[in-house]
Amino acid sequence: MAYSDKVLDHYENPRNVGKFDDEDANVGTGMVGAPACGDVMRLQIKVDDKGVIEDAKFKTYGCGSAIASSSLLTEWVKGRSLTEATEIKNKDIADELGLPPVKIHCSVLAEDAIKAAVADIKSKRDGELE
Amino acid sequence: MECLTLEGNYGNPASRSHLLGWKAEEAVETARRQVADLINADPREIVWTSGATEADNLAIKGVAHFYNKKGKHLVTSKIEHKAVLDSCRQLEREGYEVTYLEPDEKGLISPQAVADVIREDTILVSLMHVNNEIGVVNDIEAIGKITREKKVIFHVDAAQSAGKLDIDLGAMQVDLMSLTAHKIYGPKGVGALYVRRKPRVRIEPQVHGGGHERGMRSGTLATHQIVGMGEAYRIAREEMHEEHERVLALRNRLLDGLKNIEEVYVNGDVEHRVAGNLNISFNFVEGESLMMALRDLALSSGSACTSASLEPSYVLRALGLSDELAHSSLRITVGRFTTEEEIDYAVEKIHEAVAKLRELSPLWDMYKDGVDLDQVQWAAH
C-alpha cells in the first residue's frame, strides 16, 4: 500500500502523543475502536473555563492511517470550542490526508473519538457549559 | 532468454514435425527430469501448470470429478492456501462435502486427526507440506501411510517445501503434489502437478484442448518458463542442504535478536518448521503500522495474497490466537540472498519500531497500568 506524504509525516512525527490525567475535571477522554478490529484510539482534550480546547493528546493502536488521522485531529481541535470541535467531519480528515477508500474507517474513528471526548467533558461538567 | 528469440530455441515443443519443435521438446523434457529428480519421481509423473494455484485446482477438482461415483467427501484443513480452500468451496457448491480439520495450537495436523475423519465415501485428503504463513511442517509421510491404507487419494501442496525440505516420493505415499517455481527463485507463472503412476491416480482435466500433458492439461507449453523452473529445481537440489544450514542459522540469529522484547510470541511450532520462516506477534503493536516502520525491509503481515484485506490472518485465528495477537503479527522470511548484516539491521529496526509504536499505543499503556484488556467493554466497529 502506498501512503501519502501527509500520512507518512504524521506517522514519522506524530503530534501531541501522550496522556492527561483521566480524573482531571478539565479533561475529556474519548476511547473508540477495539483491539479485535485492529484499531483503538484514545483522544483527550483539556478544556478551559470558557469551553475552549486548550490542549489535546492522543495514543493510537492501529495502522499508519489511523495514527495519522488521530495525530491530525489533535492539531485541528486545539483552540476550537467544543461545538466547533464536533463539527470536524471524517471527510475533512480523509481529504487532508489523502486516505484511500480502504482506510476511510480510520477517519471515521477519529470523528467518533472527538465526539466521545466532548461528550465525556460535557458529562463531567454536567451540562453547565451548554 | 534463449527460448524467447528467433535465433534461440523458439519452436513449439508440441510440434513433432520439425527440428525447431524437437529442440523445444528436448528442453522441456530436460526440465521435466530436473523437477522430477528433486522429489525422486518419474518425469512422466510431472504435469506442467501455470503455478501451484492451478496445480491445486487441477488436483482437487480433478480427483473430485473423476471419482465422484466412489464418493463425494473430501478432507482438508482450515489453514490451507486459498487455492485449496476456494477449490473446496467450489466443490461444496457442486454438492461435495468437505471436512476442514482444525490444526493444533502449534499449527500442525496430526496423522490421527486425519485417520479419525476418513469415511467410506472419502475420496481425497488435501494437506499442505509447509504452511505459507507460519512455516510449520506436517508429517506427510505418516499421513500418507494412513491414506494409502484406507485407499484415499492424498494431495500435498508442496509450494513452500520443494527445494527446502527433502521430498522423496519413493518413500512418501503421496499421490498428487503441487509445485511452483517462484518460491525457489525460478520464474513466476509456472508450476507443476505431480501425478503418481504406481498406483495410478486419475484426474479429470480442468483445461480442455489439444490434449497436451497426456490429456491432463491442454495448452501450448511455456518453454521459456519451464526451462527456468527446471534450472531452479536443479540448483535447489545441489544447494538445498548447505542452504538449509545457512538459512536456519540466520533465522535463529533473528529470533535470538527479537525474543528479549517483552510480550513477543512466535506463532506456530518452532521445531517442525521450515528454516526460512519466522512468524511473530508483538503484542499491543498493530502489524500494518509495524510494517510501515520497516518498509525498507520486505515483510508481510498476514499472507501476501490477502494483505489487501483488513481481516487478521485466518491461519493465525485457526491456531487460536486472539484477534489482537493476530493483528499484531509479522512474517519474516529468510532466503538465499539474505545476509547476516541484513538480519542485524532488521533486528535493530524492529526493536526501534516496536518501542516507538508501543509508546503510541493506548493498549500498551493499559497493559502497563495492569488493566485486563479482556475485561474492557470495547465498541466494535
> What is the typical, i.e. mean, pLDDT of chain B?
92
Instruction: From the alpha carbons, calculate the radius of gyration of chain B and give it in angstroms.
Output: 22 Å
Order of helices and strands of chain B: HEHEHEHEHEEEHEEHHHEHH
Strand portion of chain B: 5-15%
Structural class of chain B: alpha/beta
Could you give the distance between the termini of chain A?
44 Å
User: What is the tally of helical segments of chain B?
Assistant: 11
Helix content of chain B: 25-40%
**What is the residue-mean pLDDT of chain A, rounded to a whole number?**
91
What is the terminal separation of chain B in angstroms?
52 Å
Global outline of chain A: globular
In spatial order, strands of the major sheet of chain B run 1-7-6-5-4-2-3
Number of strands of chain A: 3
How would you sum up the major sheet of chain B?
7 strands, mixed
Structure report:
The complex is a heterodimer of chains A (130) and B (381). Chain A is of the alpha+beta class and 130 residues long. Chain A has five helices and three strands, in the order αβββαααα. Chain A has helices at residues 5-12, 64-77, 82-86, 90-97, 104-124, and strands at 27-34, 39-47, 53-61. In chain A, strands 1-2-3 form a three-stranded antiparallel β-sheet. In chain A, strand 2 (39-47) and strand 3 (53-61) form a beta hairpin. In chain A, helix 4 crosses helix 5. In chain A, 47% of the residues are buried. The model of chain A has no long low-confidence stretch (mean pLDDT 91). Chain B has 381 residues and is of the alpha/beta class. Helix content of chain B is 38%, strand content 13%. Chain B contains eleven helices and ten strands. In chain B, the strands form two sheets. In chain B, strands 1-7-6-5-4-2-3 form a seven-stranded mixed β-sheet, with helices on both faces. A three-stranded antiparallel β-sheet of chain B has the order 8-9-10. In chain B, helix 1 (19-38) runs parallel beside helix 6 (223-258), helix 2 packs parallel to helix 3 and helix 4 runs parallel beside helix 5 (140-149). Chain B is globular, with a radius of gyration of 22 Å. The model of chain B is unreliable at 302-309 (pLDDT under 50). Classes of the chains: A alpha+beta (130), B alpha/beta (381). At the A-B interface, strand 1, strand 2, strand 3, helix 2 and helix 5 of A face helix 7, helix 9 and helix 11 of B.
